[in-house]
């Protein structure tokens, strides 16, 4: 007769039965210790009604979820606006309890070769799964624009053969990097960047839930640095709160580690007034802080759009010059000289042309 195992009561181990039950529940449900989840995952929408922005596109997905007959889809748009999240929400609403076994999620930037199509995707498509009436298995390919051309070509036949049982959803930043034969097989949904109001609304919900202390300029800094990317905004919020305990504008820009807009605005104001020495001094200060050419020129572009004292004509001229310099930087010429030339040209825009005529004589 086997010996009975001695059972240790939670009270004997120095913890309450309630806390022991909570730990057991957490371990059973997650299989991992109860560490703090990143807020991006903690507050990720579960249903389509919870997804922020792109109302028209989300409404189309809701109709698909209601009717159940999902086509192959390509969802394109900038990062952090809910492409993958909305597909996962759609899958949950379509498949219910069979979600885990009926969905294959792959990140195409890691698994982007032809072997993945031949082995994993084809094997999943052949697998028999008991699904609700009229539903299909779903393959979600995130960052599909990173897939090799060979892998995309191999998908063509797989999509045709298993279309009775399996549907494909591609999430990508640039739909033009998906080959034409795949595009013609899919419904293409384009997601727009989120508005500042939409980002602020979700951030305030998280701030209230997590009891985060913040200032208005801190919230504005989060929105400014995110540029419509909800994922980045939430990550920056969590990082700032974890690092400083208070979300202020200065703390956010320390975490984001991008040039402070106030310093960039002072430089652009000097350019507008034609004060070359002051503008170049501001630029040198930013450069000495270790910011890259790309960081500085990108912040110059963002700040130019938000300066209220600049006329529309001046904004257009400034953005044109900044754009040309950005193009040169992206081509590989990432020197202080390029930025100095840009600043000098911006200063020249509002200077009296007669000053240059006298200098040329």
UniProtKB/TrEMBL annotation:
Gene3D superfamilies: 1.10.8.60, 1.20.272.10, P-loop containing nucleotide triphosphate hydrolases (3.40.50.300)
Primary location class: nucleus
Region spans: Disordered: 1-25
Compartment list: Nucleus
Matches recorded under CDD domains: AAA, HLD_clamp_RFC
NCBIfam families the record matches: PRK00440.1 (NF001679)
UniProt name for this protein: Replication factor C
Taxonomic source organism: Colletotrichum abscissum
Phylogenetic placement of the source organism: Eukaryota, Fungi, Dikarya, Ascomycota, Pezizomycotina
């Amino acid at each position: 007769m086997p010996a009975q195992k001695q059972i240790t009561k939670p009270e004997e181990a120095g913890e309450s039965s309630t806390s022991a039950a909570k730990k057991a529940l957490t371990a059973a449900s997650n299989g991992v210790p109860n560490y703090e989840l990143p807020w991006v995952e903690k507050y990720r929408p579960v249903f389509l009604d919870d997804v922020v922005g792109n109302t028209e596109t989300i409404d189309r997905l809701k109709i698909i979820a209601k009717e159940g007959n999902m086509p192959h889809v390509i969802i394109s748009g900038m990062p952090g606006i809910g492409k993958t999240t909305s597909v996962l929400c759609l899958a949950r609403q379509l498949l219910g309890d069979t979600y885990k076994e009926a969905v294959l999620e792959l990140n195409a930037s890691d698994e982007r070769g032809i072997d993945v199509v031949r082995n994993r995707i084809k094997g999943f498509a052949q697998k028999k799964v008991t699904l609700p009436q009229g539903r299909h298995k779903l393959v979600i390919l995130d960052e599909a624009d990173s897939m090799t051309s060979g892998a995309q070509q191999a998908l063509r036949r797989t999509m045709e053969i298993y279309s009775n049982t399996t549907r494909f959803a591609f999430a990508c930043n640039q739909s033009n990097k998906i080959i034409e034969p795949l595009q013609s097989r899919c419904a293409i949904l384009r997601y727009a960047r989120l508005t500042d109001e939409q980002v602020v609304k979700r951030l305030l919900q998280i701030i209230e839930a997590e009891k985060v202390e913040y200032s208005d300029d801190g919230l504005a800094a989060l929105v400014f640095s995110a540029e419509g990317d909800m994922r980045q905004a939430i990550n920056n919020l969590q990082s700032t709160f974890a690092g400083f305990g208070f979300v202020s504008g200065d703390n956010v820009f320390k975490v984001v580690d991008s040039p402070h807009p106030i310093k960039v605005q002072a430089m652009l104001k000097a350019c507008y007034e034609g004060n070359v020495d002051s503008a170049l001094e501001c630029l040198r200060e930013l450069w000495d802080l270790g910011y890259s050419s790309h960081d500085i020129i990108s912040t110059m572009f963002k700040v130019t759009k938000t300066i209220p004292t600049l006329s529309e004509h001046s904004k257009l001229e400034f953005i044109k010059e900044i754009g040309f310099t950005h193009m040169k930087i992206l081509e590989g010429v990432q020197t202080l000289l390029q930025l100095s030339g840009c600043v000098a040209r911006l200063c020249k825009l509002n200077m009296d042309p007669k000053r240059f005529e006298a200098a040329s004589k």
